[in-house]
């Protein structure tokens, strides 16, 4: 008996040993099977052991309780979604604040989620994906029916039916079907071409919609800042936001400075909303970042967001007409109405003339003799009169004119898409034909948007070798670059290459500071505390920070931005030896010439400036919401080169040759 028991126990141990390679659903089934097997095995052993003593009844079934594996059991997603939607701060505090929510979602606030395929898949399965249901695709027959609804087509079909019937009655089947049959063929061609054109146009719009909606978003996963599709964002992701970015999902403010969000798409209010960690940490999908930068923790995606709820109730109609199509349709309708009126007038006149005896047949005899006229002759005469009126209607309606415009525009769109020019709206093809001036952006449009620092001026002299920079100036440059930036640096291992993220300008400056000036960004961030940030925007053309050095507790202001803007804020500068000198009018003129020279060489000129806050002003500066903007010291100027995109010169020359001005 003991041998049998030992054998059964060894079998049970082998069954309970779940292979690591099994997927989660298979592991659950394995657990269920092991439970059933163990129950039956133990039950049979007890039966054998006690069969001689007690009669046991064996049940015909075994109850198995398999507990489901819940990965995010610490948080109720429905409640969390409601907290963000309702901006409920009290309930958020009950959940442990943003940090508590991050812990429940298994997110590291600095390094983000793990980002493994299994982790992302599990989050999508639990919380849903960041996609919205699309309306069903319209079939070809839908566009055929739409073409049939055209008033012109209906009139032509009625005319074709009458013409066919009257023609067969008057001339017989062999020759009488010509007129009516020809109209039917014409209507068939118009409907076919119109339906095919609209169907293909609809398909192109759907493809374009997928491309235009697929925005790239910066997230932090496993400590690595990377760009992913907006559709790949999952609950728990840490998303990096900067000016101009669309908020990709509902979430909570983690970290950032001076963040202002435009919620007009949601609320209709034009005033920007201040978002921070204390009073309003809530961010909503579909809104845009108007100022500042931040990192957010995603709490809801897809249809669980406020934007998703709105999108589900909005239907988009892409079958809009171009201005020319609308005018031609109006013209066609007017001509058709005039044609119908004239045809009706002709019909009345011809009927009156016939019944008053003013018409003659081919032999010159009067056609109508009152009661003496045969009924068959009257019917034939009426058929001829109605056929003449129908002919006027058919000739008067220019049914092919709007179709010709549609075909021309569709062909233009197809040609432009072949040239990688995405046409969002069909009227654009028509409008572009009338363009006399093109206003284009330079960075990223005419250039490759692959920037690199090629010049550095310290004082009034260019610096060729970074080793010649004075140590005090070098420290200030490194502080200004590392702390006053929205970019980041990632390095997997000490031997691997650096990965820079941020705007092209930020990446160029960070790359230059790390590779040429040996800047250690992490060490500098650890040794300094950032107190206040003024983020860069297109109006100010500069960004600044107020920071405290942990070693000596001294406060410093660093500014970075367009060279002419920063120069105007400076009253002194560092020369090549690292000495500080006053910036008088003559010196200022020299710097302006240096800046103009760099601009003439197609370089983007960025200036760095600095000021140490005196001890008596430190308390005032710390409590003030604005940074010091005067009496700064110019640290240096950098020139960033952005190579021109191939083919731009020829494209501009072609536009000028065609009489189109390029601004």
Automatic annotation (TrEMBL):
<keyword id="KW-0406">Ion transport</keyword>
<dbReference type="InterPro" id="IPR023214">
    <property type="entry name" value="HAD_sf"/>
</dbReference>
<keyword id="KW-0112">Calmodulin-binding</keyword>
<dbReference type="InterPro" id="IPR001757">
    <property type="entry name" value="P_typ_ATPase"/>
</dbReference>
<keyword id="KW-0472">Membrane</keyword>
<keyword id="KW-0812">Transmembrane</keyword>
<keyword id="KW-1133">Transmembrane helix</keyword>
<keyword id="KW-0109">Calcium transport</keyword>
<feature type="transmembrane region" description="Helical">
    <location>
        <begin position="385"/>
        <end position="411"/>
    </location>
</feature>
<keyword id="KW-0067">ATP-binding</keyword>
<dbReference type="Pfam" id="PF13246">
    <property type="entry name" value="Cation_ATPase"/>
</dbReference>
<keyword id="KW-0460">Magnesium</keyword>
<dbReference type="GO" id="GO:0005516">
    <property type="term" value="F:calmodulin binding"/>
</dbReference>
<feature type="transmembrane region" description="Helical">
    <location>
        <begin position="335"/>
        <end position="355"/>
    </location>
</feature>
<dbReference type="InterPro" id="IPR004014">
    <property type="entry name" value="ATPase_P-typ_cation-transptr_N"/>
</dbReference>
<protein>
    <recommendedName>
        <fullName>Calcium-transporting ATPase</fullName>
        <ecNumber>7.2.2.10</ecNumber>
    </recommendedName>
</protein>
<comment type="function">
    <text>Catalyzes the hydrolysis of ATP coupled with the transport of calcium.</text>
</comment>
<dbReference type="InterPro" id="IPR006408">
    <property type="entry name" value="P-type_ATPase_IIB"/>
</dbReference>
<keyword id="KW-0547">Nucleotide-binding</keyword>
<dbReference type="GO" id="GO:0005388">
    <property type="term" value="F:P-type calcium transporter activity"/>
</dbReference>
<dbReference type="InterPro" id="IPR018303">
    <property type="entry name" value="ATPase_P-typ_P_site"/>
</dbReference>
<dbReference type="GO" id="GO:0016020">
    <property type="term" value="C:membrane"/>
</dbReference>
<dbReference type="InterPro" id="IPR059000">
    <property type="entry name" value="ATPase_P-type_domA"/>
</dbReference>
<keyword id="KW-0813">Transport</keyword>
<dbReference type="Pfam" id="PF00690">
    <property type="entry name" value="Cation_ATPase_N"/>
</dbReference>
<dbReference type="Pfam" id="PF00122">
    <property type="entry name" value="E1-E2_ATPase"/>
</dbReference>
<dbReference type="GO" id="GO:0005524">
    <property type="term" value="F:ATP binding"/>
</dbReference>
<feature type="transmembrane region" description="Helical">
    <location>
        <begin position="140"/>
        <end position="168"/>
    </location>
</feature>
<dbReference type="GO" id="GO:0016887">
    <property type="term" value="F:ATP hydrolysis activity"/>
</dbReference>
<dbReference type="InterPro" id="IPR023299">
    <property type="entry name" value="ATPase_P-typ_cyto_dom_N"/>
</dbReference>
<dbReference type="InterPro" id="IPR008250">
    <property type="entry name" value="ATPase_P-typ_transduc_dom_A_sf"/>
</dbReference>
<keyword id="KW-0106">Calcium</keyword>
<comment type="similarity">
    <text>Belongs to the cation transport ATPase (P-type) (TC 3.A.3) family. Type IIB subfamily.</text>
</comment>
<feature type="transmembrane region" description="Helical">
    <location>
        <begin position="180"/>
        <end position="199"/>
    </location>
</feature>
<feature type="domain" description="Cation-transporting P-type ATPase N-terminal">
    <location>
        <begin position="94"/>
        <end position="168"/>
    </location>
</feature>
<dbReference type="InterPro" id="IPR023298">
    <property type="entry name" value="ATPase_P-typ_TM_dom_sf"/>
</dbReference>
